[in-house]
Amino acid sequence: MEFGVQNAYGTLRRVIMHRPGKELDKVTTNTVEEFNFDGPVNSTAFLADYDAMLSLFRSHGVEVLLLQDILKHDPDALSYIEHRPNITYTRDLAAVFSRGAVLMGPYLKGRWWDQWVMGRAFQRLGIPVLGTIEQPGFLEGGGVTMIGDDTVVASLCDRANETGTRALRELVLGKDAKYFLEVALPFGNIHIDGLFMVLDERLCLIHRESLGVFPCKLYEAGVSEPRYVMFEEFLDQLGFAMIPITQEERKGGHLNVVVTRRSETAVGFERATRIAEEMARRSWRLDTFPADELFKGNGGAHCMTCPVLVE
Known about the structure:
By secondary structure, this protein is of the alpha/beta class. The protein has a single domain (about 5-310), classed as L-arginine/glycine Amidinotransferase, Chain A, CATH 3.75.10. The chain has helices spanning about 30-35, 45-60, 65-70, 75-80, 115-125, 160-170, 210, 230-240, 245-250, 275-280; strands at about 5, 10-15, 65, 95, 100-105, 130, 145, 150-155, 180-185, 195-200, 205, 215-220, 225-230, 240-245, 260, 265-270, 285-290, 305-310. The strands form five sheets. A five-stranded mixed β-sheet has the order 7-8-9-12-13. Strands 1-18-2-3 form a four-stranded mixed β-sheet. The chain has a three-stranded mixed β-sheet with strand order 4-5-6, sandwiched between helices. Strand 5, helix 5 (about 115-125) and strand 6 form a beta-alpha-beta unit. The protein is globular, with a radius of gyration of 18 Å.
């Protein structure tokens, strides 16, 4: 199968997603903290939101590979999934680069080992697995992105540590990327995709206040010591135009969008009206779906997609 992700802003051709089933019933008042849900969900309403999102991706020409279809001949994996409601958030479990995939190392015990399922899926799709973030390292895919075509970004946050970011750096620096930017986030942030989202080669959504607290480490292939840079200054040097988001929009997941056609279209929350307007001013179309029930799982379109092929 053709694969390869060389940036975060190209046209999305192929993606791995998981439409949840009875595993949603595992989210109870006693387990919400373990699974990072705001509360038990109405499965019918959750799936209605999910299906609206899924329909948008398909209408944009994205080939959606559903885990239950990839693994239909793998009863062990399918049985495991029935107990794991967070597998719906496929992005956190793996990141695909130009040479293959890296399996992530989830932090919450309610997510431990879920990356195993993605590994089985990559095996069946013929996508090489370059390595795995092993404990005591922690890193999740929502904490990983790319800036331009040559810089991999990994955030140090509530769900990641330096052991995890170092493991990823050793796998991709000088192979899939010339630069590796390690971004330290303030306490209370679980992933960088809640604060920063690349839309185009030189356009992004950003929560400036959160990303202006700590310096970042910028590693360059072939250079022994990192440089220290401020995140926004780094973007300025690259000529980025930035669409700031508010604290309320950050908490509501309004920047949780996925580019589907380069410089043209994206998919995101129905409630993100101001961001849709800002994107429209720049000749973009943000197609949206309702997420009142779906967002009880604290994720959106970005969290629920693991890109496999981006052109």
